[in-house]
Write a structure and sequence with these properties.
Blueprint: H1 6-16, H2 18-38, E1 53-59, E2 66-72, E3 74-76, E4 79-83, H3 94-101, E5 104-109, E6 112-120, H4 123-136, H5 139-146, E7 154-159
Antiparallel strand pairs: 1-2, 1-5, 3-4, 4-7, 5-6, 6-7
Helix pairs in contact: 1-5
């Protein structure tokens, strides 16, 4: 779990503010993808919030096309947990539907690439990983409230053996 400085906590609260979250939901993945390309996979804007970022490649649920995006991936041994908060928006993010339709995906982290299988977390795992996410970034608690009746899914990626 992370032990953030006062300034990092203030920055995270700013990022969780509804207008900023709304803007980030629409722009952050584009900006991060560009910065990842320019930095040869080393930097993202999302990293400034203290979050562990991976590059996730999924197969589109409708199109069948490969989609790669930088996303927060909480490490747990060889697994990664992904929180489908979509910044507290009404709907789940597209990558969630892609993983539900096509669970095999590719993860790139620190130059290492691996194939993973995604499955939705059970109730116990969901609570564990959501609490982990909040320990990294307080915005996830805000997103949970903002999502209202929508249960925010957690996807767990396990290495394909």
């Amino acid at each position: 779990m992370k032990n953030h400085s006062f300034l990092m906590r203030v920055f995270q609260q700013f990022l969780a503010w509804r207008p900023i979250s709304w803007l980030m939901a629409r722009l952050l993945h584009h900006a991060d993808a560009l910065l990842l390309r320019l930095s040869n996979g080393k930097l993202t804007f999302a990293q400034m919030s203290g979050l562990p970022i991976i590059e996730l490649t999924t197969t589109g649920a409708k199109t069948g096309k490969q989609r790669t995006l930088p996303i927060t991936g909480f490490p747990n041994g060889k697994k990664y947990a992904l929180i489908a908060s979509n910044f507290g928006q009404e709907n789940n993010p597209a990558w969630y539907y892609n993983l539900k339709a096509n669970p095999e995906c590719v993860v790139r982290k620190n130059g290492q690439v691996g194939t993973y299988i995604a499955c939705e977390a059970d109730e116990r795992e969901h609570e564990y990983y959501y609490d982990m996410a909040i320990s990294y970034y307080i915005g996830y608690a805000v997103y949970k409230q903002r999502a209202g009746n929508r249960e925010i899914p957690v996807m767990v990626l396990e290495p394909k053996e």
